[in-house]
């Protein structure tokens, strides 16, 4: 697996990219632009969260077939699995930065993949989390 990606994309990027909700139109364009750049990576957690939210939130109007097509397309990118080391690293980051475990697991995955930037709207914009800077592309 290529562990030298530059940009890690959080779940909300995939959700906006697939959303058909009129209120998400601007964010959809931003998310799709991020998905078109080289050097992006994801984690198994992002895939799981995307599936769960996309099939549950009707306002997004993403069909099951579209969800599966998006998940299938992710095979082209580095996807970090969840393993023992990732869990322990996430626990350490949770304690160190006082963030949720799930956000810490995203940061840990970005670190393990060698990403210097994490695109997300769920963490503090501009903050560096152990060598991974968070950028909220929607602000």
Estimated radius of gyration: 14 Å
CATH architectural grouping: 3-Layer(aba) Sandwich
Number of helices: 6
CATH superfamily: 5'-nuclease
Identify low-pLDDT runs. Answer: none
How much of the polypeptide forms β-strand, as a percent range? 5-15%
N-C termini distance: 32 Å
Give me the secondary-structure category. alpha/beta
Tell me the strand order in the biggest sheet: 3-2-1-4-6-5
Biggest β-sheet: count, sense, barrel? 6 strands, mixed
Query: Mean pLDDT, rounded to whole units?
Result: 95
What is the count of structural domains? 1
**At the third CATH level, what is the topology name?**
Rossmann fold
CATH class: Alpha Beta
Describe this structure as you would to a colleague:
The chain has a single domain (7-135), classed as 5'-nuclease (Rossmann fold, 3-Layer(aba) Sandwich). It has helices at 11-18, 25-35, 44-56, 64-73, 84-97, 101-112; strands at residues 7-9, 40-43, 79-80, 117-119, 128-129, 132-135. Strand 5 (128-129) and strand 6 form a beta hairpin. Helix 1 (11-18) crosses helix 3 (44-56), helix 3 packs antiparallel against helix 4 and helix 5 crosses helix 6. By secondary structure, it is of the alpha/beta class. 49% of the residues lie in helices and 13% in strands. 35% of the residues are buried. The mean pLDDT is 95. The chain has a 6-stranded mixed β-sheet. It is globular.
